[in-house]
């Protein structure tokens, strides 16, 4: 009897360890919250897909995506809304969280719609950041300037798209 009970517990434990897709609360819907210090872009709005740049690689998120936590790198987040419209938003950094209920949170340090980016201003910012990197007096200044260069390069790329 004790042996049968142990086998039953092991079987139950194995089932609980199996990793699967998230359960969406309303079928194949995915609620997006996307906010930055300067603006809230989406507030629990249902969308079809989200493509994000992360330090572990760019990836797309669909309903029932496996729960994930990632750090955003500078780049463009693309949101595909239910009507097929694509919204592209540049992010400087932040985090992306995909929850097991298919809700997604994008929290960006700074974010701006692509159409609001000014290519010439981005190019100026890149030149300034490169100059600061070249004249950095210590490791801290060099690291800060390198981050500014990386962000400015991505802004120039996004503004040119």
UniProtKB/TrEMBL annotation:
This is ATP synthase F(1) complex subunit delta, mitochondrial. Residues 119-153 form a coiled coil. PANTHER family: ATP SYNTHASE DELTA/EPSILON CHAIN, ATP SYNTHASE SUBUNIT DELTA, MITOCHONDRIAL. Transmembrane segments: none annotated. Component of the ATP synthase complex composed at least of ATP5F1A/subunit alpha, ATP5F1B/subunit beta, ATP5MC1/subunit c (homooctomer), MT-ATP6/subunit a, MT-ATP8/subunit 8, ATP5ME/subunit e, ATP5MF/subunit f, ATP5MG/subunit g, ATP5MK/subunit k, ATP5MJ/subunit j, ATP5F1C/subunit gamma, ATP5F1D/subunit delta, ATP5F1E/subunit epsilon, ATP5PF/subunit F6, ATP5PB/subunit b, ATP5PD/subunit d, ATP5PO/subunit OSCP. Residues 32-111 form the ATP synthase F1 complex delta/epsilon subunit N-terminal domain. Belongs to the ATPase epsilon chain family. The lineage of its organism: Eukaryota, Metazoa, Ecdysozoa, Arthropoda, Hexapoda.
